[in-house]
Specification:
mainly alpha
Length: 148
């Protein structure tokens, strides 16, 4: 069997086994769940601002981010965030909660390999490239801003 025939058979096999998704329900669920996460973040921020009037707005946002990161990590740890992700798809990749999930998931998957070589190393497999690209992009934008 030549390689082209083998590739065609493999592609047919993958096509048959790949789950079929319904585009419009998936888009709708992604939209409303992502929006709900954003509304939750705004609600937490408003509660902090109105509950503690002496806190500055930037400090309130910092607390809000910490709370959202903790909530996403906690829900990932108990398996709830993954079920929400299966239902909502891209809606759960709202920046801060999706980032928290992408750090926590690999750490949990590799905890049997130990704290250092399992959890600490594997939690940065996804996050590492994101951080590098983010830092490099911020330096480039900063240099452009400096020159302009």
């Amino acid at each position: 069997m030549d390689i082209q025939t083998r590739n065609q058979k493999y592609n047919q096999y993958v096509e048959a086994k790949m789950p079929k998704t319904k585009n419009w329900p998936s888009l709708f669920n992604s939209f409303w769940v992502g929006g709900l996460i954003c509304v939750l973040g705004q609600g937490i921020n408003d509660l902090i601002l109105f509950g503690f009037p002496t806190i500055a707005e930037q400090t309130a946002w910092a607390y809000t981010l910490v709370i959202l990161i903790f909530m996403a990590s906690f829900l990932t740890g108990i398996g709830v965030y993954d079920r929400i992700g299966q239902f909502a798809g891209g809606g759960t990749i709202v920046p801060i909660t999706g980032f928290s999930n992408s750090v926590t998931s690999p750490a949990l998957d590799f905890k049997s390999e130990g704290i250092i070589f399992g959890m600490c190393v594997k939690m940065f497999t996804i996050v590492g490239p994101v951080l590098v690209i983010g830092i490099v992009a911020s330096v480039v934008v900063g240099l452009i801003y400096l020159l302009i």
